[in-house]
Amino acid sequence: MGKITFYEDRGFQGRHYECSSDHSNLQPCFGRCNSIRVDSGCWMLYEQPNYQGPQYFLRRGDYPDYQQWMGLNDSVRSCRLIPHVSPVPLGLPCPRVTPVLQTQ
């Protein structure tokens, strides 16, 4: 599970919108995005609705202005939560690949 908060103004000011899942169109939620707080999870942000346009990968942390996430402008119109994949725990054997010999 993830949580991200978008703020219209820099420094986590102004109107804000919290999101905890994929959102294909953020335009009705806020007009611009100048700061972001990622409380949990990793997120992919897109400048256009429907996961289009330039994209930005954000992990947990505070981004007080759009330049902090390398944004070209204050436009964020859709977002996706990146699913967490657990690695194989240490000490457990990795699956083995058994070669198959072909006979003629």
TrEMBL record:
Gene Ontology biological process: lens development in camera-type eye; visual perception
Keyword Repeat: yes
InterPro entries: Beta/Gamma-Crystallin, Beta/gamma_crystallin, G_crystallin-like
Domain named Beta/gamma crystallin 'Greek key': residues: 2-40, 41-83
MF terms (GO), sorted A to Z: structural constituent of eye lens
UniProt entry keywords in alphabetical sequence: Eye lens protein, Repeat
Summary of the function given for this chain in its UniProt record: Crystallins are the dominant structural components of the vertebrate eye lens.
PANTHER family for this protein: BETA/GAMMA CRYSTALLIN (PTHR11818), GAMMA-CRYSTALLIN D (PTHR11818:SF119)
Family per record: Belongs to the beta/gamma-crystallin family.
Name of the protein in its database record: Gamma-crystallin F-like
Source species taxonomy: Eukaryota, Metazoa, Chordata, Craniata, Vertebrata
